[in-house]
Every structure is written in C-alpha cells, then in structure tokens.
C-alpha cells in the first residue's frame, strides 16, 4: 500500500495534481494534501507516506527545510520537487538533500506520472535488495552463532576468523546475560527458545556486530555494542525485558558484564556476568544495575502518594479531574527518577485508588475487578515511560461511560504486518514505525486483540504457509524464507504446534483434499455445460 503527500500553498495546484492523475492505476492507494510545511509534517508523522511532491517557496517553513524534517520521520522518503523559480541555488540545495526529481512549474502531467512511477519502481527494487541481503545474512548469522558460542565455551581464538568483519573489529562492547525464570519455561522449550531469540535479535543490529544466543546454562547472552549514555543503555535493556514478558510470559533478570574492546576478551566479560549473577541472585526477580539508597526520598515519595490517593478517594471525580491528578503523579514521579519496581507499585496504588473511588461514588458504571487485575498484569516489568501511558489509558477508560474503541495504532500495526509479513518484521520494528515504545505496543496489542503481537505475526505467516503448501510444490525450507523465517527449524516447530502436522505431512494430507475438491468442481462444471448445451 503506497501513499503520496502533495505539499503546495496554492490550492489550485495541489488539488489539480490530485485530480489529474489516476493514482490507483500507478499503484498509489492514498493521496494526502497539505497547504504548508507544518500541516505536511503532521501528516508525514502520522501516515508515513513513501513519496512527497512539494513546492519550495512556502510561508513560514520552506520546502527545503520541510525535506530535512520529513526525513527525520521517514528516512527513505522519496522527494519530487516542483518550483516556479528557475534558481540555481534551489537546484544545488535540492541535490545536497538527495532530492529524487526536480521539475519547473508548470509540470507536464505525463512527466510527473513517469517520475512517480520511477520512484515506485525504485522502492520495490530497494525492498527486493533488502530481502536478498537478508537471505545472504541468514547463513552468515548462523556461522556467527556457532563461532561465538564456541568462543564463549572454550575461548578458542581461531574461531574469530570465521566471524564477519563487524565482530572482529575492536570496539567497546558488553556481554549482557538474560536469566529467564525457570518456573516459567514451557513444555515446548525449543520453540520458545526460538521465539525469545527472535525478539532479542529484533533489538540488535547484526550488521554492526550484535547478536543474541543461548548458552549451555539456558541463559540468553546478548553480544551488545557499548552505549556510553547509561540511560539509553538501560532503556534498551528494559524494552527487551518488557517485550519478552508481554510476548512470551517470561520474566528475566539482567546482568551486565564488564566492558571489553577485543573479541578475545569477551569470555572474561561473559564469566564476569555469570559470577555477578551468582553473587547477586535472590529468590525474587530483579535487574542488576547500580543504584543508590535514598531513604529520605523514599519517605517523601510515600507521603506524596498517600496524600494523592486520599484526595482521589475523598470525592466523586470527573474524567478531567482524574487526569489532572494523574498529571501531578507523572510530573512528581519523573522528577524523582523512581526505580521500575517502585513505579509499578505506585502506579498500581494509584490505579486502585481511582478504581475504588469510582466504585464508591459511581457504583452503577464500574467495571469488574478483572479490569484492575488486567492493569496489574500489563505494567509488570514495564519501562517507566510505558507505565505512564498505560496508567493514563486505564484512567481514561475507567472514567468514560462507553468502552474506548481499539486504539488507532493497533489497526495501523496490523496493516504494517500485512504489508511486511514476508520480511524481517518484529514488535520492535513495528513500534519504531508507529513512534511508540515496543513494550507499550506489545501490551496494548494483547489487551485489545486477545493475542500477543508476536503470536499474531506467527499466525498470519502460517496461514500464508498453509496456502503455499497446498497450492504449490515449493519446498518447505523455501516457503519458510518466503514468509519471513530465517531458520527453517523454527518454522517447522511453529507450524507443527499450530497444525499438529509437520509441513510435509500437512501438504500430503490436505493437497489430496484440495485436488479432490478441484476435480469435483471440474466434473460439475462439465456436466453443467453439457446440460446447458442440451437446452440450447
């Protein structure tokens, strides 16, 4: 599904372009119009078009500045510039901004259509190149897994030579150990391990020397480039933890090994993380990061929370009042920089206060207790920024008479999944296109649809696989790569869990029925034709 945005401050020109071209005939499904750059940026941020046709001379923000800002939202945005000024400076600046095509007004309709079709073709070619690169990367990825697993196990230096250049390069890295809760491991352990690795790798960049693997102790090892910004580093790990909890039901403990530069020293970082886990391990799940003890701050926070919950309980509240009290909570919590465990506890306390306040004052319109229980499950292991969003949504739903519709971004997420189903799609990549955090998307998707985002992707891929198995003679390994699986074993396990059959068994069984149905239809068709012939 391709989208185009036309930006021009002259209404006659932008509407004229929209009406003069048969958009569906050239592969464009939606066309958006914007009278200025501000309106265009809002639409680009919301709709993510693939192609922008824009004027240069516009009030407030020029077309050239618009191009710079637009590409911060859609890096691969194709740009066609239209201008009424034959100015060399405009041409030069457009070239610097990597504009894809440049026309002087008035532009010939056929020339513009050809330019748009050219950009559509290049978009398709780029996507095919990415898919080919992904196929090539798959084998390299498997070699890297084997080599690093061997390196961690035996510190065999010779294995480094088998790794891609990005892994051999000396640069600051960390080994991150993710220790899953043993009690939560499922019976179909192998399939679960594939799912978990798939989620972890969606946050990592293999091209820059990052990957995830399982060690012999059934812990996840992240081979991660060092991020000097501690907050960003922590946020990335918490996002992984949050999505794993939501998509697989697994809670993990995160242990950070010391920073190393040469690949030869990665085993030292790995063993450092394992020793730290043994030293810090307790009966409850936690994340191991440096923290400071601030008893006075804790005391003041508890006092604030107590006063706020008392105010919530004291009187009937309208939605506006409830959101004002929530804003006080959010502002205070952000200043305090609360640990995630305190955020979870405090948010649940606040949610409970709002729930029982409404139950006391508006007993006829209160939802069941499961509403509060669902909220408690959704915020478990969430990053603070996700908890704020979930709590605000919880309060808004609680104080609205009618149940809120499924959020718009869930529908958009499904469209993205449908469009990129055969590619390397993940919760993380979908969230980045929607400009929300992966943990928030994962939790709201599950709450809105009844299944996790990852499960939805798997189900849609397997539906496609079933059709291909019955209607073609393509080998199952090839089908696996065609529907977005890097590993054919992962595909086979997921397929068998879903259908009860291996791909080969499914093909053998259902192709027979498919052929019988086709034969019956052909037979019926011939007889109907014969009867019609006799009547004639």
UniProtKB/TrEMBL annotation:
Signal is among the record's keywords: no
Coiled coil: 113-140
CDD domains: REC_YesN-like
InterPro entries, per database record: CheY-like_superfamily, Homeodomain-like_sf, HptR, HTH_AraC, Sig_transdc_resp-reg_receiver
BP-aspect Gene Ontology terms: phosphorelay signal transduction system
GO molecular function, one term: sequence-specific DNA binding
Species of origin: Blautia glucerasea
Main localization of the protein described in the UniProt heading: cytoplasm
GO cellular-component term (any): cytoplasm
Transmembrane keyword on record: no
Keywords, sorted A to Z: Coiled coil, Cytoplasm, DNA-binding, Phosphoprotein, Transcription, Transcription regulation, Two-component regulatory system
Role: May play the central regulatory role in sporulation. It may be an element of the effector pathway responsible for the activation of sporulation genes in response to nutritional stress. Spo0A may act in concert with spo0H (a sigma factor) to control the expression of some genes that are critical to the sporulation process.
Subcellular localization(s) per the UniProt record: Cytoplasm
Domain of life: Bacteria
Protein name: Stage 0 sporulation protein A homolog
Residue ranges annotated for the HTH araC/xylS-type domain, each copy included: 411-509
Chain positions found as 4-aspartylphosphate: 55
Domain Response regulatory: start-end pairs: 3-120
């Amino acid at each position: 599904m391709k989208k185009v945005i036309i930006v021009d401050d002259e209404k006659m020109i932008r509407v004229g372009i929209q009406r003069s071209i048969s958009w569906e005939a050239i592969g464009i499904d939606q066309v958006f119009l914007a009278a200025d750059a501000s309106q265009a940026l809002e639409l680009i941020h919301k709709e993510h078009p693939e192609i922008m046709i824009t004027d240069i001379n516009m009030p407030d923000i020029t077309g050239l500045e618009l191009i710079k800002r637009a590409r911060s939202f859609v890096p691969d945005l194709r740009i066609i510039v239209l201008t009424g000024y034959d100015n060399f400076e405009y041409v030069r600046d457009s070239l610097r901004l990597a504009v894809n095509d440049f026309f002087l007004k008035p532009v010939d309709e056929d020339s513009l259509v050809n330019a748009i079709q050219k950009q559509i073709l290049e978009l398709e070619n780029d996507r095919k190149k990415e898919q080919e690169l992904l196929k090539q990367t798959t084998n390299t990825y498997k070699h890297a897994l084997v080599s690093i697993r061997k390196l961690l196990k035996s510190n065999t230096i010779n294995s480094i030579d088998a790794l891609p250049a990005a892994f051999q390069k000396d640069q600051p890295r960390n080994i991150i150990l993710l220790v899953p809760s043993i009690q939560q491991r499922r019976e179909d352990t192998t399939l679960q391990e594939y799912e978990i690795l798939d989620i972890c790798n969606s946050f990592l960049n293999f091209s820059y020397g990052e990957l995830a693997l399982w060690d012999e102790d059934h812990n996840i090892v992240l081979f991660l480039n060092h991020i000097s910004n501690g907050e960003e580093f922590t946020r990335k790990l918490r996002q992984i933890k949050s999505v794993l909890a939501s998509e697989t039901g697994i809670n993990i403990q995160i242990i950070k090994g010391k920073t190393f530069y040469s690949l030869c020293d990665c085993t030292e970082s790995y063993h450092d993380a394992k020793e730290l886990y043994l030293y810090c391990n307790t009966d409850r799940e936690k994340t191991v990061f440096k923290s400071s003890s601030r008893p006075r701050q804790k005391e003041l926070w508890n006092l604030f929370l107590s006063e706020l919950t008392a105010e919530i309980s004291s009187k009937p509240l309208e939605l506006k009042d409830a959101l004002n009290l929530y804003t006080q909570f959010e502002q205070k919590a952000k200043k305090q920089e609360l640990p995630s465990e305190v955020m979870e506890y405090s948010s649940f306390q606040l949610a409970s206060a709002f729930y029982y306040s409404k139950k006391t004052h508006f007993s006829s319109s209160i939802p069941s207790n499961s509403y509060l229980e669902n909220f408690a499950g959704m915020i478990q292991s969430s990053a603070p920024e996700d908890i704020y969003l979930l709590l605000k949504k919880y309060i808004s739903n609680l104080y609205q008479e009618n149940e809120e519709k499924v959020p718009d971004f869930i529908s958009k997420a499904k469209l993205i999944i449908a469009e990129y189903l055969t590619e390397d799609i993940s919760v993380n990549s979908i969230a980045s296109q929607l400009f929300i955090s992966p943990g928030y998307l994962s939790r709201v998707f599950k709450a809105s649809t009844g299944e996790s985002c990852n499960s939805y992707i798997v189900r849609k891929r397997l539906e496609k696989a079933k059709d291909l198995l019955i209607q073609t003679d393509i080998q199952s390994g090839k089908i696996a790569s065609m529907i977005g699986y890097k590993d054919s074993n992962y595909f086979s396990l997921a397929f068998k869990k879903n259908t009860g059959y291996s791909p080969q068994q499914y093909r053998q069984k259902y192709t027979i029925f498919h052929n019988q149905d086709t034969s019956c239809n052909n037979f019926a068709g011939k007889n109907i034709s014969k009867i019609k012939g006799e009547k004639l």
